[in-house]
Amino acid sequence: MYDVLIIGAGVSGCACARELSRYDARILVIDKEDDVCCGTSKANSAIVHAGYDAAPGSLMAKLNVEGNALMGPLAEDLDIPFRRNGSFVVCFSEEDRPGLQKLLEQGRANGVPDLRILERDELRAMEPNLSDDIVAALYAPTAGIICPFTLTIALAENAAANGVEFRFNTAAADIRKVDGGFVVETDQGPIETKTVINAAGVYADQFHNLFGAKKLHITPRRGDYCLLDRVVGLPVERTIFPLPSKFGKGILVAPTVHGNTILGPTAIDLDDKESTATTAAGLEALLAQATRSVKDLPLKQIITSFAGLRAHEDGHEFVIGELPEAPGFFDCAGIESPGLTSSPAIGKMVAGLVSAKLGLAQKTDFISQRKGILDPKTLSLEDYAALVQEQPAYGAVVCRCETVTEGEILDAIRRPLGARSLDGVKRRTRATMGRCQGGFCSSRVMAILARELGVPLTAVTKCGPGSRLAVEDDWERRGGEGA
After folding, report:
1. Domain 376-469 listed as CATH 3.40.50.1980
2. Which residues have a catalytic role annotated?
């Protein structure tokens, strides 16, 4: 019998797990995928929003501003990259200026500090590559950029260090209310728990609707993205948004904490909760809007495109709290943008509700800090030479595009909740994320995985069951007979 079972190992589920790990409790996180951060959390804009966009008085607005303020200290504790680069919301005509004023007033009502509207000349001085058609912009200096992979992984690792259990490749199928709690039926067998946290992303409505009198409906909203090679530099230093529409914040152009430039997302509502394929039409619309905001974007230097699904709840609001029809069942649903920004505050809110419900006592030995993977590129030449002398694997470069060494890959595999697939290594180290997108280094990363996991190369996967990358050649299996 667990005290808490969390369904979903995305950024919200892992934030809840980390905050609950402050308490004496038996906590389990399950996910249908083979790792943390395999849903919405792996394919988003990587933006820490200031908080001017959400409706004043909404839970979304409250948790956005709180999460923004918490992100800096959290990034320091978890040793992850984070930068407050600021953001512009731009308008292209005087007729659109009231839209900027509305956002300014909303932001101030939400408690966002230091918002102001900038005119054309000041914008040009700050961002020379902005479109000549832009007449004004809302400036939010508290907006930032972060790596969504390292944030989610760090939250999970820190939770695990504090005793939280994780089970992957474990899909929840049904939940039954029983005396003293719930039985969660999974494809790996039943799990008993006193409380359930429903952080299942695009599937959260299905679990809510097992008990809730007021039904939820979540639409998977696809967002297409393109990523520019970091060798081109940064066309803009700040995150550039157009005025938002009913479908979201619009196509942004933004730097990443790793030195690339990201463009996106589109907003296309779907029925299929697993459909993350990009489309030609989606990418064409994306590039048209991005090039409207920022001129001379080097589109020939796009190294990859991808798409993610947002869990869009019909009311466009976070749904967080205990279901009155099923005491002990807590929703953490409808977590779309600004969900990444809000995640530290979401974790605190949910942990507060659950710990009060169970009467949990706080630990005296909670581990608040976590050290990330060592990056040799941050060392002096003398320190790097000493490291290689002691651990030669840090002198063997595996991924040339991102200069990732074998030592970093070994660390990613051997850590708590370590990588078990090619994508797991990629999200922890950036190996295969560069210009060649794994064309040169994938086989070497696979060989390291096979060796470390003690499995044949044919058992190594891209992202868990059903995604094997190599097959045994029948000629080799027969020892070359008949060659």
Report:
1. no
2. 49
